[in-house]
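The records we work with from here on pair a chain with its fold. Here is one such record, which you should read through line by line:
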Amino acid sequence: MNMTSQTRDGIALYLIAAVAVLCVLYADVDLGTLFHAILMRW
């Protein structure tokens, strides 16, 4: 899949924002387990 730099930047910004929200909402959850669960969905 060929993505433009604008699309890639948009996805990167979305992922950064999503991770920031997860860190705030689930600060007490083991982040290693959380990231592993997210990556397994891909």
